[in-house]
Design goal:
Blueprint: H1 7-17, H2 20-48, E1 64-65, E2 73-74, H3 77-93, E3 121-125, E4 128-134, H4 156-167, H5 169-174, E5 182-191, E6 199-202, E7 207-210, H6 214-221, E8 230-233, E9 244-248, E10 260-265, E11 268-269, E12 280-282, E13 287-290, E14 295-303, H7 313-317, E15 320-328, H8 338-344, E16 347-349, E17 356-360, E18 366-371, H9 374-380, H10 382-387, H11 389-397, H12 399-426, H13 430-443
Antiparallel strand pairs: 1-2, 3-4, 4-5, 5-14, 6-13, 6-15, 7-9, 7-15, 8-9, 10-11, 10-14, 12-13, 15-18, 16-17
This protein binds zinc ion (2 copies).
One zinc ion is lined by residues 66, 68-69, 71-72, 88, 92.
GO molecular function, one term: zinc ion binding
Keywords: Metal-binding, Zinc, Zinc-finger
Protein name: MYND-type domain-containing protein
Length: 449
């Protein structure tokens, strides 16, 4: 599949990619992100008129917040004390509610039937709590490596990535960069330790575990590339009764960095070009150190399947059993630093068989396993699996957005046809024509047909 494009062809294609046709497509994707931001903003406005967690009284003033969970809110000290005695003590320690942030809304707001960020996994250990959702595209399609992970406001960023891949087409092939098979998880983590000690989370070392069914595991592995770090565990491994895969975070083809992003720390959205908060120890590696009450939101992508049998977020989620996140809790900076801890994280090896065991080998690092709630995901994606994308968008994002999606979808199909026509005119060899078609299809960003 090694291919060197003719420089003249490449020049023409590059011209097209930076031309108006491709730009329209990119602009439409940017419009989708902007629309979603607006929805969040609207919801946020509704939420700021919050109510007291104890007496239920609504208020426009700033309410007192429980310093440990940043979730419960009160009119005054009396309400806070009364709530703590009757209910909140257990709720706070049990990580019942995630910290309040508009970047992660787990409850339906206003008349909505579904939350913006439905919970599909949660759990806590040693005073560190996790809530897991999906960062979904409007129609629940899985993403590609070709697309940037960060929601891009500048539509030309898509084209820049495309041009880089055209210049080195083998990269796209090696990484299967145009296959729509990346699931994006949103992981919210918070320290609620009562001893005042910080904790450290190693985002880039997070993995997902597939269900222990050989066929599911096989479907999940079909899209595997040489760049993926996947370990297979079979019967006989400790605690395992079937065959399952442990999949590390996907790797970006341009800089080999893990496809993860810290998007929010303590309610502040992290933006490019703005200094990182001190909680972020290593942005690209997703290492955060959190003091009690502090929280961070990470987005991470995992390659699930080959884009054929598994095409939607729901398909991908239903193959997964748990998310495993390494943490050090409590963390003592005097004893070891986060960089060496991050580098030390690995799986144990069985001394007899020499095979890897599904347990961390690094002393002091604990892996928190968050089981996926299959039924919660099934309920959330019911419309998608039974009635299709349009019905799903209607019920989850409203009539208006469904209309906009249908309109855009038709426009994009038209653009894709034009792209193919343009490519045909380039007269590329048959093999390469196919991969260019694939490019054209994927120009229809965030979509599948
Ligand atoms: Zn009150
Ligand atoms: Zn609390």
């Amino acid at each position: 599949m090694s291919f060197r494009p003719d420089p003249a062809d490449l020049k023409r294609l590059r011209e097209w990619v930076s031309g108006p046709g491709a730009q329209n497509i990119a602009l439409a994707s940017a419009a989708e992100f902007q629309r979603r931001d607006k929805v969040r903003e609207r919801q946020h406005k509704r939420v700021v008129h919050h109510r007291c967690s104890y007496c239920g009284k609504g208020s426009t003033d700033t309410l007192r917040v429980c310093s440990l969970c940043k979730s419960a809110r009160y009119c005054d000290r009396e309400c806070q004390v009364a709530d703590y005695k009757t209910r909140h003590k257990a709720e706070c320690a049990g990580f019942v509610h995630p910290p309040f942030t508009t970047s992660f809304l787990t409850e339906p707001l206003g008349d909505d039937k579904y939350p913006q960020d439905p919970l599909f996994a949660k759990g806590h250990l040693n005073g560190v709590g996790f809530w897991v959702s999906v960062s979904s595209s409007v129609d629940c399609a899985l993403q590609t490596l070709a697309n940037p992970l960060r929601p891009i406001k500048d539509p030309l960023e898509y084209n820049r990535r495309d041009i880089r891949m055209l210049e080195d087409p083998n990269l796209g092939v090696k990484y299967k960069a145009r296959t729509r098979n990346l699931l994006t998880l949103q992981v919210l983590v918070q320290n609620r330790r009562k001893d005042g000690k910080p904790v450290v989370v190693f985002g880039a070392r997070t993995r997902v575990l597939t269900s222990e069914t050989p066929t599911v595991t096989q479907n999940v592995l079909n899209g595997r590339t040489e760049a993926d770090r996947i370990t297979i565990f079979t019967d006989g491994g400790r605690g395992a009764f079937g065959t399952y895969a442990s999949i590390a975070i996907a790797e970006d083809m341009f800089d080999q960095s893990p496809r993860l992003l810290i998007t929010n720390v303590n309610g502040t959205v992290l933006k490019e070009g703005v200094p990182l908060p001190s909680a972020v120890k290593n942005g690209p590696r997703g290492i955060v150190a959190l003091h009690p009450g502090e929280f961070a939101l990470l987005h991470m992508q995992f390659r699930i399947g080959d884009g054929d049998l598994i095409v939607s977020e729901w398909d991908a989620l239903s193959c997964l059993r748990a998310l495993a996140v390494p943490v050090v809790a409590p963390y003592d900076p005097a004893v070891c630093n986060t960089t060496s801890l991050d580098a030390s994280i690995s799986l144990k090896t069985d001394p007899v068989s020499g095979k890897l065991i599904d347990e961390l080998a690094s002393p002091g690092v604990t892996e928190v396993r968050l089981p996926f709630d299959f039924y919660a995901a099934e309920a959330y994606y019911e419309d998608l699996s039974e009635k299709g994308e349009l019905a799903f968008i209607k019920s989850h994002r409203g009539e208006k957005e469904a209309e906009a999606w249908a309109r855009e979808h038709a426009e994009m199909a038209e653009h894709a046809l034009q792209t193919m026509e343009n490519i045909r005119r380039l007269g590329l060899p048959a093999d390469e024509l196919n991969s260019m078609f694939e490019l054209a299809r994927n120009m229809v960003s965030g979509r599948r047909d």
